[in-house]
Protein 1
Amino acid sequence: MSAQISTQATRPGEKTFHGLPYRLRGTMKTALNYTVMVLLAFFFAFPLVFMAVSAIKTNETQITSDVGGLLAFVPYPLKWVPPVDRLDDAPAEIREAYTGLGPQNFFDVFRRMPFGRFLWNSAFITTTTVGLGLLVNSMAAYPLARLRWKGRSTMLAAIVALIIIPFEAVAIPLMLLTTRLPRLGGGIGWHDTYIVQIVPFIADAFSIYLFYQFFIGLPKELDEAALIDGASRLRIFWHIIVPNSRPVFATVAILKFLWIWGSYLWPLLVIRLPEYRPLTVAMQEFFGQYPRLWGDTLAFAAMTTLPVLVLFLAFQRGFIRSVAATGIKG
Amino acid sequence: MLAPAAIGLAIFLAVPFLMAFQLSLTDTRLLSPNPPQFAGLENYRQLLRVSVILMEPLRDPVTGEVQRDEQGRILYPRPRTILRSDARYEGMGELAQFHLLGRRYLVAAGDPTFWKGLTNNFYFALVVVPLQSAFALLLAILVNQKIRGVNLFRALYFMPVVVPMVVVAVIWFFLYNPGVGTINAFLKAVSSGRLGPFNWLGDPRLAFPSIMLLSIWQGVGFQMVIFLAGLQEIPGELYEAAEVDGCNEVQKFFFVTLPQLRNTTIFVVVATTILAFQLFTQVQVMTGGGPGEATMTTILHAVREGRYQLRAGYASAITVVFFLIVLAVSLVQRAVLREERAIE
């Protein structure tokens, strides 16, 4: 109805164009606005919906035939199918009978690969690196931001300069270096350990810089009062600076979490044994296995994404604020 | 308090960074029983060496006449024959051929794969940086509106950023399926059967653009948020003043929004350019640099040489060149930003 009015009204040179009720023009604009935003939402959501829907479809043949149409995004048929052992190897009639929705593909992933181990590896590596990184980098930023000492500005300049070295520029020499470092408990070479995936990434120039920026903004009176009371610098840091800096801790934690959880190049270079393999490399390995089963692979992908996605949905504002913080340099 | 971080940065960033320069001057191999030898600039010579060779047409050995095929085109010897026949071109391979003023030239390089990779990185930067930045700005403007449900859209557009790149690559690999894939089906539906089906990742001309599309899909939300932060810092009075002066929406965008976002835009452009040169995960998972070398990149080549060919010295030379490019991009950024401050 409103579309009809508008085509009539927009005839060129006609007075009624401006005479169109303002309220109606506003409605048109809003409708167009939402249409564009919804279309864009489809563009960003469709690959993830495809992954989630395919992961819960139990019949591989159905997944590969649905993918050429809108059915790729529709979870159907609405029939609960409990997981069965070796369904993908079964004859077609049996697979047909087990067509529906259920955890079959997830079950298959666990049967074909030690998924739990990879999940644990990624979770352990990520939380340890993020946790130790928060401690070490915030402690480093404190004297840079709030104490006066000789060489402070040189140190700060050096750390800012290090930010522009991308990891890719040091990956190959670092790989060589870590093959020559002494192992905990004897031996040489850090390859195929957790250490090699954690220790090099704890200290991080960009994290220090983010902490530094936040700490210089805190009022000077905060630590002065405590200093008069005779508190040590470490005490001041721990009891006054840290509790007042929650937002920056969240920012650094989120950015580093995304970086380490998704890291792929480094473990590819230094990890060969499955015992220490993180999810990303295992994902690629699983993807490369033949026959390439779409349902199983997408179930693996969904399980790799789920932890980050859940965290994102829980701390959405934090994520967006963290990313915004990366832009404030320069 | 500074010590743990300083030691960490020294051992795991500064030392390997300096090692890259030192290693690039040696023939160091991973897992080699022989001690590495100093090789001077040999790695760089192999990496950067390029020759342009004039190709002589094939001539009839008796009459000396230029040979032609059935369509009358002049016949040339095979590039490999030319390169093999002259000791000066030892170890070089064909990079490209071109015509100039009726003559045909052969471009040979010490490491054609490196040049292919580097060219691809520039190609990626040239296409993706402007497209992704403009798209991000559009998204930022949309989600900066004060309308109902805007937070939901903001979250939806940002969501791909948190998905690990390996997962993104795997999902899109299926969507790009040459036969039954969703992308082909979509194109077929909107063009009522005229377009496709395309062999997205198998066609040398389409493979790299396909990688670009998914990279934009995954990364644009990040830049959107940075632009959003920039938009929210623009003082509202500027828009009010523009309105008083009779500016319409388009004029407000060009005379207020864009100039105010200058520094944000420079940051986004530079960060995206550097990302273009870091391109690795998508190509490693989806195409392995292929078909042929259509999706080869600098870092993929460095990893191949360093990790799989075990040539750590040579791979280091590649990463040094990569770093110098990133450095140049960053220095341009600083120079442009400084100029801005000087004007103020």
Protein 2
Amino acid sequence: MVQAPERSVTAQLTDDTRLDDGGMPQKSLVEAIHDTLLEEMRADDRIVTLGEDVGRRGGVFRVTAGFLEEFGEDRVLDTPLAESGIIGTAIGMALNGLRPVAEIQFLDFIHPAMDQIMNEAARIRYRSNNDFSCPMVIRAPFGGGVHGALYHSQSIEAVFVHTPGLKVVAPATPADAKGLLRAAIRDEDPVLFLEHKKMYRLIKGPVPEGDHDVPLGQARIAQDGTDATIVTYGMMVHEAQKAAAEVAQETGASIEVIDLRSLKPLDEWTIVESVKKTAKALVVTEANGLCSVASEVAALIGEAAFAYLDAPVMRVTAPDVPATPYSPPLEQAFMVDAEKIGAALRRLIAY
Amino acid sequence: MATTQRAGKKQRQTEQDGLTAVAEALGFDEETLRGLYRKMVLIRLFEDAAQRTFRQGKIGGYLHVYSGQEAVATGFLAAFQEGDRAITAYRDHAHALLLGSDPKAVMAELFGRGTGLVKGKGGSMHLFDVANGLWGGYGIVGGHIPLGVGMAYAERYWGSDAVVQLYLGDGAIHNAAYHEAANLAGLWGRDGLNPTLFILENNQYGMGTSVERATAMTDLAAKFDSYAIEHEKVDGMDLVAVLACAQRVTERVRETGKPYAVEALTYRLVAHGAGDFFEKYRTKEEVRTWRERDPIGLFEQKLLAAGVADEQGLGAIRDEAKQIVDEAVRFADESPEPPLEELHTDVYADAE
């Protein structure tokens, strides 16, 4: 008989990821990112920001509004529409003592810069004998549900997660946006910081003032539960919690929701410990399913918690079609939402 | 090093006047000139040895040597000062050697050994030697150009007067990364924030495709006009011409913080890659014509004519270089493979 190898996972440092929000300012996601980057740039003159319309226009989503006036053109660089140039020069700046925060206006526009990101930024440390690092942040709005269609909706995070040398984060709350952006800027390696564009103004929440750090690689338990675990990230955290509330009301089941926050490094410990407790796992991503972050999480659970499972690992993902369609009903059919998550969750609970 | 001279008719004339006048203008003594000869010979012999050991199966993958183009990097890096940066594409052995990398470590890297410049993780096309100012050889054509421009920006951001020598080939100038980066260099340089010296090594062929077959606008230096980057051409086979040009333009970039471009007309006297045994894209006559202007031979003639060295002296320099190369090959051959643990090192700063 073949002994199945049990994948071992390492415990991450844990902190109290619940916020006591008494007295904290409430901010939208975009406000939290704006304020954090502003504070960081005030504190560290190695930080420059560059991208299309980040200066006079203040960013297409207004993330850098007012930055040019405060920091001047040497630190807030309006670039032409040239993603390869933006990312490539940011890498050069990072190699040479700066901490660039490059904005790609939409994650959908990042493809011309893929060579720079995958072939250069991700590999600098490995190929340079650890003499060089590439401490840069690439900020990019991602995600659908805004009728953006082909080129303003994409969730292509899996490509970057698949690239060793990069780190990838996707905050679901304004507080995490602050904590993760601070950690990303302080990190010695390149970090892709994904901002869900539908959440920019939709999601509001308490944001701690002062030094609030969220270490990369640490998930957040968005809600405790004992009967099933939903693992997800980004906007889907909110949809999952909505679904969990409905299903809990109907069935009395207690659902745990894990917000990954970091897609890479992945907090394997939190995922596996939760599934060991609940014995049922539903993995949700807004991206299409084939070779997605959800695939990886499902594989992890299979390798590290198989013996604890009372049901097959289930996934809810977007369909494997080439693009988010424009037509509202088609888009709705494409998007993962609370209803679809709820349907899967009911099947999982009943299994 | 040499005193800074502004470009002027007088100096241009001096550049054309030959070795003695140029050496005097640059403040190079005879020993320095013989040292430059030694560097070019070392590169040639190193590349010969690399090709030989490649054919013996000791170097794997892909190998692109610099034979024929020695005068370009030798000339420009003679104007390199401490704190300056150099970044180039994949034909990068010469740049490492000229900047002071240990030939043993360079050869060991080509052999993929643990004693190599980057522990055998890079290989021929991907040398790196931060301590000596080589900020990488890069294997994606054009991909390194924005990196160099960004590095130059960072220099001026901090108020340094360093220059980034950014080498690129004629094949790279048609790539989008060049155009995006050159545009940014011109833009940032307008405010004195981009001390990039673009050194366009036009060896006439992007692999097997000649310049004429790659673009209808074959004046490659003029392509910098689009981005308001001033430029000139230099005879890249003539070390003396390159030296004079390099000194002048490097100081210009250092003083102004504005990018500048030099198209060095040169020729690779060997195949594109060491594994290319058949060349259908150029004629033997063409290669022979260029070989008559072999940069090492040309410089030899000038040294002899100026009485800086005699045949015996040059022979001694060649013997010395051969010894260094032989020793490098022996070192590489005897060096251990990298330990397997190296597979997992240098991935992230906070790796376990």
